[in-house]
Design goal:
de novo design (two linked rop proteins); single chain; 2 domains; OB fold (Dihydrolipoamide Acetyltransferase, E2P); 3-stranded antiparallel beta sheet; alpha+beta; elongated; 5-stranded mixed β-barrel
Length: 247
Amino acid sequence: MGNVIMVTGMVLSSLPVGEFDRRIVLLTKERGKISAFAKGSRRMNSPLMGVTQPFAFGKFEMYEGRTSYDVRKADISHYFTEVTGDYDSVCYACYFAELADYYGRENLEASQMLNLLYVTLKALGKEAIPNELIRYIYELKLMSINGECPGLFECVKCGNSNKINYFSMQMFGMVCADCAHLVNDCVAISESCAYTLQYIVSARLEKMYTFTVSDSVLKELSYIVGRIRSRIIDKRMKSLELLDNTI
């Protein structure tokens, strides 16, 4: 059959295959994004039934074949029922999983992406901060982890780290007050918004969802992070369309 391997991961998506099986996509710490078959998981009382639920997180034991993986068993430590029990939270979680699927690559270590997705779903379940803010934090942090973050800590025109209260998509980063008149598409942002953007990309994951912002800053984040996402991510996200229709 092949080697037996153990990976830590989360189910990003699950689709029925044939009469009794499912094909799941996992984001794993050790091997990045992989697809695996859970044979017989749709049979009543199958021990693999719970394993195939979206957002199931834990350790998965699998056979590694020449062209595919087969789930043998799993020890699921978290099903995120606090998220799956709320429709709006599920919409956000599906979008976060789809973004992780977009960035995931097979055989590339993905511990940062997996940890980010885990703490993000935990934040969704706690309802300590608005889901919309969680979304912008997750989007920007995920793009940063994958090396696609704009310049946020100094003026991308002159290198000055003071008075950087403008953002330019053309220059793809922050611009200082002295250079703003030299860049055609500069948009003025508040000091609070600039600080929040910097904090998101620099803070440790355990500190990522420990703050909230005013409605005005949230509106600024929506605009700036939305522009960044539109430039970097070229895939049409089905879950994003559903999410935007629910807001």
